[in-house]
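explain this:

___
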Amino acid sequence: MRPVLTLAFCGVFAASAVLVLTVRRYARKWGVMDHPGGRKIHPNAVALGGGVAIFLASAIPLFLVGAACRALVAWPDLLSIPPALHRYVQGAASQFSLLCYILAGGLAIAVLGLWDDLKGLNPPLKLLGQFIIAGGIAAVPGVRITIFVGIAWVHILVTAVWIVALINGFNLLDNMDGQCGLVAFLTGGALLALALQTGQMFIAGLLLVLMGAVLGFLVFNFPPASIFMGDSGSMYVGYVLAVATILTSFLTSRQVNPFFPLLVPLVIFAIPLYDTASVILIRLHKGHPLMQGDRNHLAHRLLRLGLSERMVLLAIGLMVLATAPGATIPYGSSTWQVFVPAIQAAAVLCVIVILEVASVRGRRENVEN
């Protein structure tokens, strides 16, 4: 099965690259550009619409493969299935309805983001739209965070909040060339490792396809970028990663450690969540509106330290690599082992905070002197 997944990844990567080139061409032709100015740091106008390519490159193959598996199970004489793939085809067919719900939500969130890219949305209205879409997905019984509480409306609320949190976390990361895509690729890789450990091939396929689409886009988005993913892409990427986290089972027949499903997502997405939380705290401290964009994101703060855009991208990538892979510890570990990656991630974040505070104090002292 893994060779099949590898071929799927390569195919989606190639399709994404072709789609990005096509979207970039027509975006320039039709004047769909992101112009510099205000809080934006790019010096020249850059094509928008990369998110459309990411969505198409990931959603269409998933739907076609799911539909093909459903057809092969419904009409077994249609095509001979290799015995090694038989159970995977049956599994994909049984999950096809769920896949359609997920893709429908992905389409809705991508359209909402594209509307914001092209026309501009009032931030509260945009947030409301996100919650409506997240709530609709959370209403599907198979896509819920239960957190060991037997109350349905609590499951739906917690699930919707988590989906919206990651949607906005990755949306906020899309403030510098390559950053959102790189973080999505690395965190998706950590989730993929967990899915493969326990044979959750539906989740593995979902993540591999997303990672292939993101990587195909990243080829044209590394500094200096020639195309941006826009809100349509960043919100869609955050949505898929949130749903993949929810669908991943953290329970095994060996042992059920209640801390594992709570800590793993926080560890994997430690850097995006830190960026979101720090920006909110800075805006509250300065008395700025919470939904008003600014240049106080982690990437902007690193730029003010004197790093180039590529150095910032490398630094953030290393931060993710220092936190997310720790969550791939084997299932069924003892309680203290489960806390090890969480403590490691917290230590990395504390080091970042200490360095940032020291930098701010140093600049103030230089100004005063």
Notes: The mean pLDDT is 87. The longest helix spans residues 335-368.
